[in-house]
Amino acid sequence: MIISDDEPKNKQAIKQARTENLRPETVEYDTSFETNIRPKTFDTYIGQEALKNTLKISIEASKMRNVTLDHLLFYGPPGLGKTTLAGVIANETGVPIKITSAPALERPRDIIGILMSLKEGEILFIDEIHRLNKIAEEILYPAMEDFFIDINTGKSQTVKSMRVPIKKFTLIGATTKAGALSGPLRDRFGIVHRLEFYTDSELAKIIKRSAGILNINIDDEGALKIATSSRATPRIANRLIKRCADWAIVKGEGVVTADIVTSALEALNIDSSGLDNTDRHLLEIMIKNYSGGPVGIQTLAVALGEDIRTIEDVYEPYLLQKGFIQRTSQGRKVTPLAYKHLGLIAPNAQMSLF
Ligand code: ADP
Q: Quick count: other Cβ atoms within 10 Å of Cβ 229?
């Protein structure tokens, strides 16, 4: 791995990596903005039961064998709790955690710096890990496998390789796209797990817990109503609680009830299935401009004025999960359920069969 083409610069990089324990883009787990509502234990981390059980066993086994936990890869749409779960694991294992994301690890010295700063057993969480560049990935391979990094110094003809040991650590990678990870990187994770969308009752529990912490008065119906409109996603549920609480204070009597939620969501243009303007616009474009599809993602992105990644990562997973669109080899197709949801009639009988 060449991290610099001349020695002095390279030495500087190593020195900087040693002294600069934490780069500014790297944050400790305890992020202040939502410190309180982020669960820190398996008991308060609601849902994802299968994954939690797997993790509990792995944590127990690693404690019994006195070894660091295997590297873990979590994938799934944004806001489902990947970062939070990494924090829970750190807390339950009793180890510190550093949180960063792939775009913050652009230069070799960024990843080298962070790897060299890790304490024994520490967890390194890298968000959006599919966006790591090739060089950073190659630095990670020996670090993940044998806990050292290879640093090559000097110019091409006089390259010297230096093997620098690092502390044993656990890498937790998170991605919205497991398929975008290179094979060699994916293979180095001992546990690869998809986070599932949440059920309404799981979300209602999350909402009631967050409301309690935020001192928001909410009744059961209000919590359930927010749950059904939160795209099966805790981050959205937590955001909606705050908007509904504002509404309850200004327009109601301070309690978040089902009626308050209904009018707050109406004002936010969020419908009963949790779809917002962009979701509906996306479905309408497919129906009006492309007779319901199939339509390719690129065409859709241009028509919608959104980038492909946002459509794929943010909008599509939930529309697929709701059964409003279908993926076919020719592109995306709107389902009869979506027509019904939008108050439209599906074009032909054949469509309404599937
Ligand atoms: P991701 O990393 O997958 O994008 P986060 O871990 O940042 O998602 O979670 C988003 C928010 O949702 C967090 O603030 C957290 O409070 C909440 N959250 C996520 N998962 C859960 C859960 N299982 N139980 C309770 N709250 C959760």
A: 25
| Domain spanning 2-194, CATH architecture | 3-Layer(aba) Sandwich (3.40)
pLDDT tens digits for range 90-124: 999 999 999 999 999 999 999 999 999 999 999 99
Q: Going by CA atoms, what residue is nearest to atom 21 of ligand 1?
A: 81
What is the three-class DSSP state of 164?
strand
Residue ranges per domain, the chain?
A: 2-194, 200-267, 277-343
For every residue of 225-270, DSSP letters joined together read HHHHTTTT-HHHHHHHHHHHHHHHHHHSSSEE-HHHHHHHHHHTT-
d(CA 338, CA 151): 54
Question: From CA 131, how far away is CA 142, in angstroms rounded?
Answer: 19
CATH fold of 200-267 reads: Helicase, Ruva Protein; domain 3 (1.10.8)
- Ligand 1 mean position to 120 CA, how many Å? 27
Atom of ligand 1 nearest to the CA of 174: 2
Residue 291: partners with Cβ closer than 8 Å, 6 or more residues away:
347
For the Cβ of 45 lying below 6 angstroms from any atom of ligand 1, the answer is: yes
pLDDT bucket at 152, cuts 50 / 70 / 90: confident
Can you tell me which atom of ligand 1 is nearest the CA of 195? Answer: 3
Residue 49 is encoded by which pair of tokens? 């039961």
CATH architecture of 277-343: Orthogonal Bundle (1.10)
Q: Does the CB atom of residue 315 touch ligand 1 within 6 A?
A: no
Residues sharing a CB contact under 8 Å with residue 107, sequence separation 6 or more, in sequence order: none
Q: What is the pLDDT of residues 286-298, one digit of tens each?
A: 999 999 989 999 9
List the catalytic residues: 82-83, 127, 176, 235
Half-sphere exposure for 187 (CA within 13 Å, toward CB): 5
Structure tokens, 123: 């967890």
Between the CA of 233 and the centroid of ligand 1 the distance, in Å, is 8
What is the percent of the chain where pLDDT is above 90? Answer: 78
